[in-house]
Amino acid sequence: MKASNALWKERLAGKLPEELAREVDIFDNEVTLRKQGKLDERLFAETRLRRGVYGQRYDNGQRHDGTKVQEMKYPSGDLTKGPVTMWDAPGMQRIKIPGGGLNADQLETLAELAEEYSDGIAHVTTRQDFQLHYIHIEDTPTIMRRLAAAKITTREACGNSVRNVTACPYAGVCQDEVFDVTPYSRALAKFLLGHPDCQNFGRKFKPAFSGCAQHACGLTNLHDIGFIAVTRNENGEEKRGFDVCVGGGLGAVPYMAKRFDSFVPVEEILPLTQAVARVFGRLGEKKNRSRARIKFLIQDLGIEKFKELVLEERKTLTPDPRWTDYLKDAEEFTESALRPGGDIGASGSEEYQRWLKTNLRPQKQAGYVTVTVALPLGDATADQLRSLADVVRKYTKETVRTTVEQNFVIRWVSRKDLPEVYKELRAAHLAAPGAGTIVDVVTCPGTDTCKLGISSSRGLAAELRRRMAENNFQFDEAVENLHIKISGCFNSCGQHHVGDLGFYGVSRKVGGYAVPHFQVVLGGEWEHNAGSYGLPVAAIPSKNIPKVVTRLTGRYLEGRSKGESFKDFIKRIGKVELKNMLDDLARPPAGDRSYFSDWGDPREYSLEDMGVGECAGEVVSSVEFDLAAAEREVFEAQLAFEGGKVEQAGKMAYGAMLHGAKALVKISFPNVSEEADQIVSEFRTRYYDTQKFFDPFAGGKFAQYLFDAHAKAGAPYTADASRYLIDEAQLFIDAAHSCYNKLGASVSA
Amino acid sequence: MEIQHVNVKLMVSGATIADLEPLIPVFHRWIQGQVFDELLLDIADYGHVPQGPGVVLIGYQADYGVDDTRGELGVRYNRKAPLNGTNQTRLKQAACCALKACQRLESEAALDGKIRFDGRGVEVFVNDRILAPNNEQNRKTLDPEFRSFFSTLFRGSDYALAYDTDPRHLLGVTAKSSKAFSVAELIANLGV
To answer: Is A379's CB within 8 Å of B52's CB?
Structure first.
């Protein structure tokens, strides 16, 4: 698209790291071949995904404009860059930043790219990556070349590959870390990039490092493989290692990682990960994407069997010098300060004081602090990135990292320099207080740009921020420290399961109209590397979510015991009470049409442009009643689970799915019996085989939950199995609502 | 020296619109009606980002936005697809598209006259660092092009040009006319 793409290729020839240059040249040729129709669209889709080139919402060439679905008439006509993905449709470029570590030149490169190829904004993700949106596919090789010139790669930023290796942004400066995980995370990222043993996965694989067990920063529990720094004494010497866990993951049904080994010596972490990758590559599911993450393999095998297989695999590996070469420098690895440390400037405006309180964290090195730059919704302008580059050059040795809370952390800032640093950040609108507080809402892109989005997570996040700004960002400390995390759909990119207040987008039909909703997820824990996952309490119309936040935080303030955490408070008052508290918010007020559109998007809400529904004949209003009843049963299953009645909870969750399925079957077969076999069989014939129940992107995943549960019915439920089944049942019911919405849409069309 | 990807930003006169949210339904209507020659696709709302791109109407060939970069609120046209012709053709094309967007915004009933233009402040920049790196030589080379363009745009009025000399920024120039112009007058001056 850019007139200058050939010029960049010429300018940067011979100036890029050889391997990165070759990678980009290959991709550039693939772009040309696809454009000429000489490369299959599926192959091209996988190859571009493995280089971080994603599709974006409406790239199927359709967009609901509020009144009808418009066909986008792109200049390249029917040419595609993947199945049902138009060539000319804007896409997203994800950029991997291992451990979030950047330097000033890299910030400036990102600024240039945001300006020249995107819409002027660089977006920090919940996995320390960057994303640029509205990119044309033909510009991506140039973007990759310019990034490579700054020693950044997009390789394996998406696709079925090893994704960005994340790490605690405070590594090396945190006051209570065990040791600095930076050199280990970097070594693993480098080792796994393009590794032949990592090219045959059925799905993605996400590693994470944390310097301690107690904080949130590494979120190791929700990763495919997580490393927590530990030491032990061996013959009077302190030996470094990692507490390694595997099989965690959010997604539709969150899995808590399971401990693989409480102490893996540092020299073993690379070969161990390689062995894990080989087992995953060999035994992991390949055909059914919804069961292809390593968490399912570990769940199916059991952690002990999985461990046995990995250790056997480890024995077969040919020694690789890269496993340990980096270690000689690792223990000595350290960053250092540019300027002498000192004392904090105590006086200043009220705003400055607030910034000091929320955005600073003392380092273990006396006289230094980390400064968090809180980005609204993870967005930074090109000018802001350049200003940040100036600050980190002037006051530090360019020590800045992105965080999983979509912010920047500047490390090694002398306390003495704080007034000046604040002044310069403020001039660039980068000194907003409230980092890591309730104001600092984390959100995925949602319906703004994501193909999978169901509700507007960014719209909701912006609205919540706006309302909190009216309160001048001042809250009681107990509320101030809560975390809000929002996902536009069940896929959890906004990490809603681990927020104090989590929300994920769903749709519901009200009075014949599709209405954007969010499931309210409570009980999650951010600390302890994502210590526990919340469960859905109720689906609430999107426009009522701010009231949910006000009500829940208000009730917490009034009713908490001294020192009681929000999570404990939620547990104490119980789901029934919580549901009752939100009950009047669960339906839109009669006649208020504002509920039929989402935050920041005045179009009448529709998901029609995500996929094409089929006519199912007469739509029976009792379906809504039946689905509501099924949803209530899922809730009751949660209550049973929390009451320790694991077996009962599992049965109830399965029963809820059956009732949801029956509700849909009854539309065309009113006399379906209560027999589970018949319900499942009819559901399969009418909704699965016909693909009417299919999610546009997840396919038959949610129906499969029912089939699996039915196949296992009668067997005892373990606590894990019961917990997963509850989540699956909720997702099945959400999918049943979506299916019903689609059927209704096609009837009314 | 050939320039492509020309951006033109017309400054809003007076800070009459504090909140950009009312623009969102307006831009949605523009997409519904496909009101320009270019294919209009989507809306990106960055109202939450201080001094940012504001609200952007994403198009295939070009983006339109009400942009608040560096605290200067204006209507920005960002030409993405390359254009044939001379530099003057490309400057005029971008200016004309920006002006037509201004004209529409001024007449949008939903905005209640809150967006107005007096035609005094116009910024032009080249959104491509390799075609036009921001250095003294290029500024000198392009200066006659810009003067020729602004003499046409601000026909009959004196104007002053100011270059942004930060080499990290895009090559661009801000023109201030001593005389006010309506949007229609500026379009007429361009003769397109």
So the answer is: yes
* Residue whose pair of structure tokens reads 């059914």 in the numeric block: A288
CA A396, CA A408: separation in Å to the nearest integer?
A: 14
Q: What is the pLDDT of residue A19?
A: 87
The reply to whether residue A465 touches residue B48, judged by beta carbons under 8 angstroms, is: yes
pLDDT at B16: 63
Cα separations in angstroms, A23 against A28, A157, A572, A653: 9, 14, 55, 48
Instruction: Report the amino acid identity of residue A727.
Output: D
Listed residue (A445, A367, A344) closest to A121, CA to CA: A445
Helix (H) or strand (E) holding B8: strand B6-11
Angle at A27 between CA A26 and CA A32, to 5 degrees: 100
Q: Is the per-residue pLDDT at B80 higher than 50?
A: yes
CA angle at residue B28 from B16 to B46, to 5 degrees?
55
CA separation for the pair B29, B27 (Å, rounded): 5
Q: Return the DSSP state at A220.
A: G
DSSP for B18-45 reads: ---TTHHHHHHHHHHHT-SSSPEEEEEE
pLDDT at A617: 28
Q: Render A569-634 in DSSP notation, one character per residue.
A: HHHHHHHHHHHHHHGGGSSPPTT-GGGGSBTTB-SPP--GGG------SSPPTHHHHHHHHHHHHH
Cα–Cα distances (Å) from A624 to A354, A436, A508, A542, A744, in that order, read: 49, 40, 9, 19, 12
Residue with token string 């690895």: A333
Find residue B13's DSSP bridge partners: none
Q: Say if residue B11's pLDDT is above 50.
A: yes
Domains with residue ranges and CATH for chain A? 5-149 (no CATH), 174-324 (3.30.413.10), 350-427 (3.30.70.3340), 612-749 (1.20.120.330)
Could you say which residues of chain A have pLDDT below 70?
345-346, 472-473, 610-621, 744-749
Asked if residues A167 and A181 have their Cβ atoms less than 8 Å apart, the reply is yes
| Bridge partners, A693 (sequence order) | none
Q: What is the DSSP letter of A473?
A: T
Are A509 and A475 in contact by the 8 Å Cβ rule? The answer is no
Closest-CA residue to A630 (of A662, A591, A605, A601): A662
Residue range B10-14: average pLDDT?
A: 90
B79 Cβ under 8 Å from any chain A Cβ: no
Residue A46, exposed/middle/buried by CB under 10 A (0-12, 13-18, 19+)?
A: middle
pLDDT at A613: 30
Over the stretch B18-73, which tens digit does the pLDDT of each residue have? Answer: 789 999 999 999 999 999 999 999 999 999 999 999 999 999 999 999 999 999 99
Is B63 an 8 Å CB contact of chain A? yes
Across the interface, which of B4, B45, B129 has its CB nearest the CB of A3? Answer: B4
**Structure token pair of residue B150:** 């602004």
Q: Are A406 and A374 in contact (CB under 8 A)?
A: no
pTM of the model: 0.90
Instruction: Report ipTM for this prediction.
Output: 0.98
Q: For A1-53, give the DSSP string.
A: --TTHHHHHHHHTTTS-HHHHHHHHHHHHHHHHHHTT-S-HHHHHHHHHTTTE
**How far is B133 from B141, CA to CA, in rounded Å?**
12
**Cβ pair B28:A66 closer than 8 A:** yes
SS3 A213: coil
Distance from CA of A2 to the nearest CA of B (A): 7
- Token pair of A588 as six digits: 């839109």
Token duo for residue A673:
């019996």
Q: Are A400 and A410 in contact (CB under 8 A)?
A: yes
User: Which B-chain residues 89-108 have CB contacts (< 8 A) with chain A?
Assistant: none
The reply to whether B5 touches chain A by the CB within 8 Å rule is yes
DSSP code of A255? B
**Partner-chain contact A88 B60, CB within 8 Å:** yes
